[in-house]
């Protein structure tokens, strides 16, 4: 990393600057972007007749300040020169065109961070975009990020877990759309005139994931009276170690969406399905990462044991009690993992204390992964609706459905003459409600989870220390 920083350093007022966020033009860029964001409509355009809208000349001046700051910062990032030229062109075209719906396809195609993944390399990203689990509107955002691509991870990707589009990244600086729960940078969120045939990268902020994991896990451990083994205790105290666990988990999870016996579109983006099917898919990918981590631990990879802890703790303690209960498929997956481990005596809630059998946890967790994989394998020979019912049966074996559910009553309660996608309307918003255990835990952790909005590694260190 030191070599890269030296190559990318520039001089400002006689002083060397290596980090983009330390350059005086970074706050100017951020301020100009923050000035533009409130003027934008949901689609990213600016309606100059709306209340509070600026004069067109004022908006154009703000865009020119964004452009000027990007041009000042670009020498720090010679590897992104083509992208920065393109984004400046897209910004000016947006302004010259009267600030209609933005189209940043040219700069999106020019941004190719996965072409050369280098540990520690910085990127400055400016796009009109929405942020998943953050801001639903396509506002202008500026993000400075740093690549996480250590040699051991690069070797695993090259030899075992091919994922050429995956980016492990951390935050250096960001605008308001990322002062949220969003922990991803995905190209499909960017405003463009047409969707490219294929995307060439996808980034996950392992520092935010790790920081959130540490804060929520600490609170869960204290609330539930869990007796932690020494290695988990030391992991929770170490932000860097947690980041390495998450970047490995994410890399394997991400590729699993297109690997295995898949009876459907791998990313399920062209289908309308009951939300428990999405929950099973996300859980399958997490449990595949868990299973691979068990294998890697046996081969001596230090980060592998931490991945197992991260999957179990994040899935059991954060996912089920985060967000609302409207078709919360990630929450459902966490509930299912806990219930499965509970049914098999790996976790026990006794005397107001949660006990975890760490010796049996890997085998039983892998057993659940096997059940989901069998569901998929058998699903190749099933019609879609039959497959959905099979998924429902798997989940309802361990989680109690809502007593008013039509799906719980079976096919006779549904109008199966309709196309399967129409029957999704009969799925209740909370088809599998929280158990009494999770209802109580949600109340205890609600404020802690809310406090992790916009969290960074630095925030986590302060919060955990307190």
Question: What does the model show?
Answer:
With 466 residues, the chain is of the alpha+beta class. Helix content is 50%, strand content 10%. It is built from 18 helices and nine strands. It has helices at residues 2-8, 25-36, 56-73, 81-96, 105-110, 151-159, 206-224, 230-236, 239-256, 275-298, 302-318, 329-343, 361-379, 384-398, 406-409, 420-423, 436-451, 457-465; strands at residues 10-12, 15-17, 122-129, 139-147, 166-174, 184-185, 202-205, 347-350, 353-356. A five-stranded mixed beta sheet has the order 3-4-5-7-6. A two-stranded antiparallel ribbon has the order 1-2. The protein has a two-stranded antiparallel ribbon with strand order 8-9. It is globular, with a radius of gyration of 24 Å. The two termini are 31 Å apart. Residues 1-7 have low confidence and may be disordered.
**Net shape:** globular
Oligomer: single chain
Radius of gyration: 24 Å
Topology, number of strands: 9
Give the averaged pLDDT, no decimals: 94
- Flag low-confidence runs: 1-7
Structural class of the helices, strands and pairings?
A: alpha+beta
Proportion of residues in extended strands: 5-15%
**Largest sheet properties:** 5 strands, mixed
**Number of helix segments?**
18
**Strand arrangement, major sheet:** 3-4-5-7-6
Topology order in helix (H) and strand (E) letters = HEEHHHHEEHEEEHHHHHHEEHHHHHH
Distance between the termini: 31 Å
């Amino acid at each position: 990393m030191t070599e890269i920083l030296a190559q990318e350093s520039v001089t400002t007022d006689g002083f060397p600057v290596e980090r983009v966020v330390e350059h005086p033009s970074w706050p100017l860029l951020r301020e100009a972007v923050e000035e533009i964001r409130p003027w934008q409509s949901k689609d990213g355009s600016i309606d100059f007749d709306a209340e509070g809208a600026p004069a067109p000349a004022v908006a154009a001046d703000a865009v020119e300040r964004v452009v000027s700051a990007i041009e000042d910062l670009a020498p720090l990032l010679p590897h992104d020169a083509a992208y920065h030229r393109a984004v400046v062109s897209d910004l000016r075209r947006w302004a010259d065109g009267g600030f209609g719906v933005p189209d940043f396809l040219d700069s999106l195609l020019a941004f190719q961070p996965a072409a050369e993944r280098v540990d520690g390399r910085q990127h400055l990203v400016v796009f009109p975009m929405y942020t998943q689990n953050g801001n639903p509107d396509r506002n202008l955002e500026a993000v400075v990020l740093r690549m996480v691509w250590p040699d051991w991870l690069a070797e695993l990707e090259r030899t075992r877990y091919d994922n050429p589009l995956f980016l492990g990244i951390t935050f250096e600086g960001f605008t308001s759309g990322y002062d949220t729960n969003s922990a991803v940078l995905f190209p499909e969120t960017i405003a463009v005139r047409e969707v490219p045939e294929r995307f060439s990268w996808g980034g996950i902020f392992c520092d935010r994931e790790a920081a959130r994991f540490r804060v929520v896990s600490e609170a869960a451990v204290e609330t539930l009276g869990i007796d932690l083994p020494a290695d988990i205790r030391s992991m929770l105290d170490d932000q860097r170690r947690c980041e390495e666990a998450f970047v490995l988990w994410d890399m394997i999870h991400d590729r699993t969406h297109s690997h295995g016996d898949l009876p459907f579109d791998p990313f399920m983006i062209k289908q309308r399905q009951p939300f428990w099917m999405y929950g099973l898919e996300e859980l399958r990918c997490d449990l595949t990462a868990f299973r691979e981590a068990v294998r890697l631990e046996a081969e001596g990879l230090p980060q592998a044991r931490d991945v197992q802890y991260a999957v179990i703790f994040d899935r059991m303690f954060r996912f089920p009690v985060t967000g609302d209960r409207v078709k919360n498929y990630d929450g459902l997956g966490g509930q299912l993992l806990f219930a499965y481990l509970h049914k098999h005596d790996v976790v026990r809630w006794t005397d107001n204390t949660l006990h975890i059998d760490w010796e049996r946890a890997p085998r039983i967790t892998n057993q659940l992964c096997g059940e989901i994989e069998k569901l998929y394998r058998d699903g190749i020979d099933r019609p879609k609706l039959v497959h959905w019912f099979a998924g429902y049966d798997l989940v309802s074996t361990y989680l109690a459905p809502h007593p008013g559910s039509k799906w719980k009553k079976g096919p006779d309660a549904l109008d199966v003459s309709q196309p399967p996608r129409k029957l999704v309307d009969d799925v209740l918003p909370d088809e599998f409600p929280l158990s009494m255990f999770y209802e109580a835990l949600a109340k205890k952790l609600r404020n802690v989870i809310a406090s992790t909005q916009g969290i960074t590694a630095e925030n986590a260190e302060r919060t955990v220390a307190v």
